[in-house]
Amino acid sequence: MRLAFYCPFRAPGSREPSGAAETARQLIHALSLTGHQVEIASIFCSADAGDVPGRRDRLAGLGERLAGRLIARLKRRPPEARPEAWITYHAGDDAIDRLGPRVAAALDIPLVLIEPMPPASAADAALAGDGDDDGDDPTAAALAQAEAVVTLTRHAAAGLAGRLPDPARHTAMLPFLALGPVEAARKARVQHREALATRYQLSKDVPWLLSVGMMRDADKLKSYEILATSLQRMAALDWRLIVVGDGPLRRDVLGWLAYLPRGRVHWVGALAPQQMLPLYLACDLYIWPAVHERHGRAILEAQACGLPVVVGQGGAVSDVARDGVTGKFAEAGNQADFANAVMFLLRHENFRKTYATAARNTALDHHGIGRAADTLDEVLSAVAARRATAGGG
């Protein structure tokens, strides 16, 4: 099928490190593996945290104008060159899809939603649609129009409760990765560790801990606070922490990390996805408090590279990690529990090795891109079949 693909939260081509953008790129890759032709419909970003008065109204107006232009442009194409379905990934009340529902209706093509994001809280849900002059809930309208809804996490699936008119059109699948590059790179693990030891002046004889998180919102800041205060509890143990991430809250994050013993923390800034593999492969343990984690992509990537994990429980964590199998879960927001879990694995290398093997095997068995490609193809085939039946074809 010819597919128009859109991510209102972050464009797939964004150079800013983003779990949403990377997942969007992986979705496009997965769709292409089964022969679908995918074009990025727009790079219009409608993300809105609700902290700028009037911004949602302005985005709504701009989205309406852009949708009109896009409809006109696509209608000028011959029918055999127009998209046969519209796919929107990661739309929700904080990144409303202003384009997909309008374009799909105008072209009479199915609207498919992947990982529509529920509100983070009941209070947010009460504000759904706030700022739209007619008082409608655009997310609910999109769900009503969608001919298929695919979720990648239990968090997103739970957000559909009571909001999806036809639950039979919902398909749940697991987060996924293209594992080929990981398997190719893991052969050079020793060389990666040697190179990083030299670059960052790291002792190869102590455990290397890895944390990955952008520094741009309150949840990430809270995760870094828990990370720093937890590690203070284990200053007597010998370890090194490598931190990947950057953003507008960098000063706050580095302020928390500054409380840790001198020489223990190595902040490397933001890295492109291809730069992450050597780090994942060279380190010994991935640790992240994961406050309100919505994606868990870095957690899954770490495990695919054979890293055991210590993560805070909640959000998307249980979709990408398994407590007592690929690592240890800590009670959400509990600094002592998180610290105890990290200390346990620092002190017990045998558990780290067992979890590392299970982490890699779990990624290979359940989170490969091939499985995702087949599921998405089945969803699109079902949509096309329903359309053909309804049209008498």
Largest beta sheet, briefly? 6 strands, parallel
The arrangement of helices and strands along the chain is: EHEHEHEHHEHEHHEHEHEHEHEHEHHH
Number of DSSP E strands: 12
Q: What percent of the residues sit in helical stretches (DSSP H or I)?
A: 40-55%
Structural class: alpha/beta
Named CATH architecture of the largest domain: 3-Layer(aba) Sandwich
Global Rg = 22 Å
Multimeric status of the protein: single chain
Shape: elongated
Low-confidence stretches: 121-135
Strand order of the largest sheet: 2-1-3-4-5-6
Taken together, the total number of domains comes to 2
Output the CATH topology of the largest domain: Rossmann fold
CATH homologous superfamily classification of the largest domain: Glycogen Phosphorylase B
Average pLDDT figure: 92
Distance between the termini: 17 Å
CATH class wording of the largest domain: Alpha Beta
Keywords, please?
393 residues; alpha/beta; Rossmann fold; 2 domains; 6-stranded parallel sheet
Descriptive overview:
The protein is an alpha/beta fold. It has two domains: 198 residues, Glycogen Phosphorylase B (Rossmann fold), CATH 3.40.50; 187 residues, Rossmann fold (3-Layer(aba) Sandwich), CATH 3.40.50.2000. The protein is built from 16 helices and twelve strands. The strands form two sheets. The chain has a six-stranded parallel β-sheet with strand order 2-1-3-4-5-6, sandwiched between helices. Helix 6 links the parallel strand 5 and strand 6. The chain is elongated, with a radius of gyration of 22 Å. The relative contact order is 0.12. About 4% of the residues have low confidence.
